[in-house]
Input
Amino acid sequence: MAGPMNASPSAPAPGFDLEELYRSHHGWIRQWLQRKLGNAHDAAELAQDVFVRLLSKPRVFNDHEHARAYLGRMSRNACVDFWRRRRVEQAYLEVLATQPEQLAPSLEHQAVILETLEQLQAMFERMPQRVAEAFSMAQLQGMKQREIAEQLGVSERSVNSYLAQAMYQCLLLEAELDGSLA
Amino acid sequence: MSRAPLDHGVLQAAAGWFARLHAAQNDAAIQAQWHAWLNEDARHRLAWSYVENINQRFGGLGGQAEQARQVFDSVRRDRHSRRAVLGSLCVAGVAGVLGWGGWQRGWVDSPRAWFATYRTGLGEVRPVTLADGSQLWLNGGTALDVQFDEGSRQLRLYRGEILIESGKDPRPLSVVTRAGRVQPLGTRFSVRDQGLQTTLSVFAGAVQATCSGSGRQTTLQAGQMMVFDAQQVGAPSTAQRLREDWSRGVLVAEDMPLAQMIGILRDYRLGHLGIDPAIGSLRAVGTFPLLDTDRALAMLERALPIRVVRTLPWWVSIEAV
Output
């Protein structure tokens, strides 16, 4: 028998009603987020965000308990994303402040970059530090494996394996988001 | 369409190919083996499409790779020291006040921008004809809502840039940004949202701008441009053709420094596009395709003593010959 977690996201089955889910769960999610964040405005935005995510990837729930568990997990993830976003945004602001204004990208480009930085930071957080460092040197600084090996003081063979590991972590995340993992 | 699900082995194989290709970028034999692997199975191709997604994400950083590295370093340093502190709700409250004003600074999208009726991606220019006959062009990275009712025509620009040729309609037309409101008097003009500031350029007719905060007003004539924010208006200067030419998908360079030109092209492509500062002051002349930046680079390469070096598909740098 297919478990609830295997519910296919592409086939909205009977029993899925976003409006009802919203009515039953939005209230406690917002309160929970407000306790976590200590701020009603952010909590309201994030609670909204949880339902936007649900809308973009509908799921079938067996009952309200099941929905509650799932939405609770989504809310926790939203919280983690929120703090990451805050940290990355702050760090990017600081970096931009140190460079001459004429070198700064246009504001719309900055928004795109910030979003990318958040996604990449989320990936880096899943990797061991060495692996993340090697991956960042290869992808951001365009360094060759020999150069990375010298800098990290490891063999080229290790660097090759670090890069494969790093990419594997990224691919896992990508496949999970795409719902294509067996 | 149903797809064969991927297993971890296929993802591991794709990651392995990524590392191998990275190590031997010009090795034809390895590339042939990799092609053979791709051709073997649709699941291999699906897994590889994820590798490309990841690479494109890095490419999306444009010329900001060094800044990105600094951001990641700083976040990594902070993570451990901050984690303990952030547990406390009191501190979280303070951070809430400091941080989430991102949208006001123009860098984080308003949720309304995600759902705006008209949106364009990076490097995409789209013409739109509105119900009243007004012709609109959306520059890359634009989010816009259109609200027409009995008494008014309102365009809400959340981010990006639009060029307008207003149609004949008795209802007043206005464009609203964070900085304020502009109202044309039968005309052609562009509005570029830059967060707290808005740039208004007028190419025909006249346009009135009103600051959202102070209510201060200025009217610009054809051939003029001006930057304003919620409180103040800047001094009018000569309108730049650049702010109009993008709607035709071209960049017209008249003795433009190469560094400036590359800076503009960067906004129209994914990937790193670097330039050796030593050749930044070379001058470019001509009409270049904005939406096909590879062709624009090839044209530059023919006209100037430079060469375009493609280390990886998403990593391009311009060097002296």
